[in-house]
Write a structure and sequence with these properties.
The structure is a single chain. By secondary structure, the protein is α+β, with helices and mostly antiparallel strands. The chain has 4 domains: 171 residues, Herpes Virus-1, CATH 3.30.40.10; 111 residues; 65 residues, no CATH class; 162 residues, Cyclophilin, CATH 2.40.100. It contains 14 helices and 19 strands. A hairpin with a 2-residue loop joins strand 7 and strand 8. GO terms for molecular function: zinc ion binding.
């Protein structure tokens, strides 16, 4: 079934359900309260759905609002509120025959009369006899009831989405079942051919057996001849019988095996075995994934009794996000990828990459981190590991299955400085050296430290031959930090170079044995009579113009490595 047709049908089902609910355009679909000019003003979300101000404020979480209708997540504007739906207000005013409050506000104040609103305000005369405490309790209870109503409607929306998904899945499963039934029918047809062929072979085998018996009888006759006349007759009969049997034997040998029958049987055997093997492989992979997820959930479960006795553990443990039908459903439907899927770039994988839903996962010191994999300009990039979890339904792949263990490989640094867009610099790590392997780790963050958010800290020989810039101090950003991640960094087979773009080692002071995570980049060529840089482990392959522009900044520390990572694949 065409995915577009599935999506269109799902949208039609959602629209039909919304129509069946019979929403009143004068009321907020969440709290079922009439819109007014004060607390219940209609406001539009970017997805197009309209709700009252109170309900939208109640839906705000960490600067985001999730639409109760379509479940799209929107960022709260800088002003703190979404735009007012003036068209809705004007439409409701025309329905009610009232004038806008902005037109009647001044006249109302001058005349000492209240300003009319979109909805008739409740009569407060009966409430004036109630104490302030009781009115506060009523207001608090009203807010609780409204929150409960929003919760019920939220659950209805989730159930509607789930029901729609079930309907689509049912159709998809029926389609798969029809295709599987076709395969089964073809397999049954092949089995029928086998039985028919068996029957024909058995029939021919019996005929051959009868022919053999006739030959034995003829042989006995030839051995029992007693006269000349009888001998000539026996010879003629034996010769005729032998010729007939030979012709029949040759015809049957040419008849079997039948090429179309054997080809059909073989094709169905191969197809059926391949289908069964694929099913078994997929089931094993899903079982392993479920076991891994169950193990992670079990390890992440907090012992309630132990937590009560340990205040520090209780305060440091982050609160788990609320679990809903849709979040659990999205977690169950999270697609899985293999490393080869990323390099083959088949349409499903490409779609996930273009949607930003592919991540590499890595566990360090018991904590799982995620690195986004992006497809940009026909290049596949793995960005540095981050603490935040990927979005729902993202596909993940272990990072050690895609990241090269050692050079040669291509890594990238995204540089940025004030009033300038990010500049991507590609570094080709040519020889397999300790510094090259450490550079990969610091670009991905696999060992914890990372070049991301570090700054350049030194510019040497500005404007002169051999001008170079230094960076990579992930601890202090001043060249006095950057502890090494590997021992014996100076033991590698490093190259010499005088050319701009060479990436080389930088050590503290004059002690060449004190190598660390810091690196240098030659901005300008060295003079021929000068000594070359002899600790080169890579060179700039693209983005040298950006490095040269970064070196012109008044403060070199303004140049920041905004992001970094590894190029997994490039044209």
């Amino acid at each position: 079934m065409d995915p577009a047709c599935k999506g269109g049908k799902a949208a039609d089902m959602e629209a039909q359900k919304d129509s069946d609910k019979g929403y009143n355009p004068e009321e907020c679909p969440v709290c079922i309260s009439a819109f007014d000019d004060v607390m219940q003003r209609p406001r539009n979300l970017p997805c197009g759905h309209t709700f009252c101000t109170s309900c939208i404020n109640g839906l705000k979480e960490l600067g985001h609002v999730t639409c109760p209708n379509c479940r799209l997540v929107h960022v709260v504007p800088d002003a703190g509120q979404f735009p007012i739906s003036y068209i809705t207000e004007d439409f409701i005013r025309r329905l009610r025959g009232t004038a806008p409050a902005s037109l009647l506000g001044k006249a109302g104040k001058d005349a000492g009369e209240p300003v009319p609103s979109l909805d008739m305000q409740p009569d407060v005369k009966g409430a004036e006899c109630l104490s302030r405490a009781i009115r506060s309790m009523l207001q608090e209870q009203e807010e609780k009831v409204l929150a409960t109503i929003r919760g019920c409607q939220e659950l209805q929306v989730q159930l509607d989405h789930y029901q729609t998904s079930l309907g689509v899945w049912g159709e998809q499963q029926q389609h798969l079942e029809d295709r599987l039934q076709t395969l089964v029918d073809r397999s049954k047809g092949a089995r029928l051919l086998v039985r028919q062929e068996e029957a024909q072979v058995e029939d021919k085998r019996k005929q051959v057996q009868q022919g053999e018996q006739q030959q034995h009888l003829m042989l006995r006759r030839l051995r029992s001849v007693t006269s000349r006349q009888e001998a000539f007759e026996a010879i003629d009969d034996a010769d005729l019988l032998a010729d007939q049997e030979s012709q029949r034997t040759q015809a049957w040998q040419e008849m079997f095996p039948k090429v179309p029958t054997v080809a059909t049987i073989r094709k169905m055997r191969v197809t059926s075995r391949a289908a069964l093997k694929a099913v078994q492989t997929m089931e094993a992979a899903l079982d392993a994934k479920n076991m891994e997820e169950n193990t992670e959930n079990a390890e992440g479960t907090v012992d309630t009794e132990g937590a009560c006795g340990d205040d520090e553990a209780e305060t440091s443990a982050p609160a788990a996000p609320p679990s809903t039908i849709l979040t659990r459903l999205e977690a169950l439907l999270a697609p899985t990828l293999e490393a080869e899927d990323l390099y083959l770039l088949m349409p499903p994988t490409r779609s996930l990459l273009e949607a930003g839903l592919v991540f590499a996962t890595h566990t360090i010191e018991g904590e799982k981190r995620y690195a986004q994999v992006s497809l940009q300009d026909d290049c596949l990039y793995l960005h540095s590991l981050q603490d935040q979890r990927p979005p729902p339904r993202a596909a993940v792949v272990p990072i050690d299955e895609v990241v090269p263990v050692a050079p040669p490989c291509l890594v990238f640094l995204d540089l940025t400085w004030p009033d300038s867009p990010p500049c991507r610099v590609l570094v080709r790590l040519i020889p397999d050296t300790p510094l090259g392997r450490q550079f990969i780790w610091l670009c991905t963050g696999e060992r914890g430290p990372c070049y991301a958010n570090t700054t350049f800290f030194h510019l040497k020989y500005s404007g002169q031959p051999g001008e170079r810039v230094s960076g990579g101090d992930y601890e202090r950003n001043n060249g006095k930090g950057g502890s090494p991640l590997l021992p014996d960094l100076d033991k590698g087979d490093y190259r010499e170079s005088r050319r701009a773009g060479a990436v080389h080692a930088v050590w503290r002071g004059d002690d060449r044995s004190n190598w660390n995570s810091n690196f240098g980049i030659l901005i300008k060529d060295l003079e021929e009579e000068g000594d070359p840089v002899d600790t080169v482990f890579g060179e700039i392959e693209a983005g040298m113009e950006g490095v040269m522009e970064a070196a012109k900044q008044y403060y070199i520390t303004d140049v920041v490595v905004k992001d970094c990572g590894v190029v997994l694949w490039a044209e």
